[in-house]
Amino acid sequence: MKIELFYAPVACSMVPYINLTEAGADFSVRTVNFRKSQHMTPEYLKINPLHKVPMLSIDGRLLAENVAINTWIARTFPAARLLPSDPLDELQAISHMGWFGSGIHPHLSRINSPSKFCDVPGTEESVKKLARDFLAENFAVANERLHGRDYFFDHYTAVDAYFFWCVRRAAQLGAAIDPHPAVKAHFERMQQRDSVKKLLAFEAKTLEELTAA
Ligand SMILES: N[C@@H](CCC(=O)N[C@@H](CS)C(=O)NCC(=O)O)C(=O)O
What we know:
Blueprint: E1 3-7, H1 14-23, E2 27-31, H2 42-47, E3 55-58, E4 61-64, H3 66-76, H4 87-112, H5 124-146, H6 158-172, H7 181-190, H8 194-212
Parallel strand pairs: 1-2
Antiparallel strand pairs: 1-3, 3-4
Helix pairs in contact: 1-3, 1-6, 1-8, 4-5, 4-6, 5-7, 6-7
The protein binds glutathione.
C-alpha cells in the first residue's frame, strides 16, 4: 500500500504524521509550502479544492479531514490501538476528534487570521479576544477530562495527537495554557513520545529547507 501525506509544517497535518508514526506505517510526505502559497496552486487544488492540509493519498485515493484520516489510520493499523477497543469508547474518541476539529481549531484560525473572519476596521483585537475566551472554555473542559489521567482514554490514542496540536498551536499564538494544569501536563507528556520527537525533528528540518528554498 502506498501512503502519502500532504503536510505543511506547524499545521494540523502533524496529527496524521504522529499517528502514522505511532502505527509503524510506511509513508512518505509531500510538503506543501504555505509561504509560497503552494496550497492555492492549480496542482494542489486538484488534490484538495478547499486548499487545506492534511490530505492522505492511499494508493492514489484521496482522503480529507483529520477525523477521517486518523480514524482510517487507526482502523488500518489495529495493532497500534490508536482508538479504544470498546465500541462506545471508540465513538467517544471520534467524537473528541470532531470536537477538536469543529470546536477548537476554528478559534485558533480566528486568533491567527482575525481579518479573514471580520473585515470591519479596528475589530481584529475583539475577534482575537473572543476566540481566546472560547478557547479557554474548551481547554477548561479538556482539563477536567484529563485531570488525574495520562491520556483522554485508557491508553494513548489518535485523539491525544490531535489535542497536542491544538495546545501547541494555541501556545504559539499566545493563548494561556498555565490556567489548565492537566492540559499543560498532557502537552509535556506528549513531547516525551518518540512519535512526537520524530515529528518535531522532521518539522524543524522541513522549516529549514523551506526557508533555504
Ligand atoms: N477540518 C480540517 C481543517 C484543516 C485545516 O484547516 N488546515 C489548515 C492548516 S492547520 C489549512 O490547510 N489551511 C490553509 C487554508 O485553509 O487555506 C481538518 O481537520 O483536517
